Amino acid sequence: MAIRILHVAQAAGGVDRYIRMLLKYLDKDKFENILVCSQDFKKEDYEGLVDAFEQIEMNRAIGVKDLKLIWKVRKLIKKYNPDIVYAHSSKAGAIARIADIGCKNYCVYNPHGWAFNMRCSDKKRIMYIAIEKMAAQFCDKIICISEAEKKSALEKKICRENKLHVIFNGVDIEAYESGEHSKVKRKELCIPEDAFVVGMVGRISSQKAPDVFVKMAKLVKEEVPNAHFIIVGNGDMEAEIRKYAEDNDFSENLHITGWVDNPMNYVELFDVACLLSRWEGFGLALPEYMMAGKPIVASRVDAIPYIIRNEKNGLLVNVDDADGASDAVLRIYQKNELKNKFVTQGLKDVHDRFDARRVSEQHGMLFENMIR
Asked: Cα–Cα distance between 116 and 121 in angstroms, integer?
């Protein structure tokens, strides 16, 4: 008889992609999957992946409406009577774990990056830690997406170590390698074929440090006049980023795609790929860059050094260090053998360490061990 898992998710974006990859490779003979998600998810994306799809209004902000939300989620848990409730990200994690109190099933939580590691006020950080400590009492396992996440949980005394289980994130290598490539051409973005292209994938918000990226871009363009820069994503800092480029006379060399369904189409245009985050639970863009054969410059923070080993498969720079980032990008531009070394090692690492199949297999083993 199949093990029934009820997934609860509020935040779309990276969490949505993670769940789809997980379900794609989870053994369908062994597991039955139900998804309870917010209005930000699309039902058509889960056709063939889930046995039932339930959508309820679930917003990120904490408020009085959450009491009604807890009741709705509890009603769905009772309706489907799962063997395991699997809550994804902090908001859904709090809601689902409280809704599941007293139900006769196992409960698993994956924060997908601790909220208390964000750059926020001390007051908010203390609140996030308190919520996680309280809610940790109502689940059986917490999945950390990196060793850095586990270490952070232990430092903040969120729960006992035996409750924490590390399953590194992964990317769908098989889908990428069997898919179509070069679907987006440089000329569509008005980028010359011989340009040196530096890019990043991520929300245009403080976490992903797009302001550091454009400061780095200014410095690189001073050394490489035909350099162009691509930001794949959208966000609340877009106007500020565009203004900086305009004020520093390189707005025609900065290309912002907005939200796109397949960011890999744009990653394929990069000569160097960046992730200069100020905090990062994992940084899924990094193995995606490796999968596409791109040399990487990334910030030395949280989980990133567990993925990027400095001088081995990429270059690490300090957080908020635009000068260091520009120096690293220029090193790769000037030294072809360094670029080739990073690309070769990155391709090896993504196949050995970051395959989505492995993520699903490790989840399957955990679920089966819990039920036994």
From this structure: 10
State pLDDT tens for residues 49-95.
Answer: 999 999 999 887 777 788 999 999 999 999 999 999 999 998 999 99
What is the per-residue burial (b if ≥16 Cβ within 10 Å, else e) of 38-60? bebbeeebbeebbeebbebebee
pTM: 0.86
3-class secondary structure per residue, 146-189 = CHHHHHHHHHCCCCCHHHEEECCCCECHHHHHHCCCCCCCHHHH
Cα pseudo-dihedral 273, 276, 279, 281, rounded to 10: 10
> What is the amino acid identity at position 72?
K
Scan for tokens 């709705």, then name that residue.
72
The Cα 212–Cα 340 span in angstroms is 26
CA-CA distances (angstroms) from residue 94 to 69, 89, 98, 106? 11, 9, 6, 15
3 state SS of 315: strand
Which residues, 6+ apart, have CB-to-CB distance to 265 below 8 Å?
183, 184
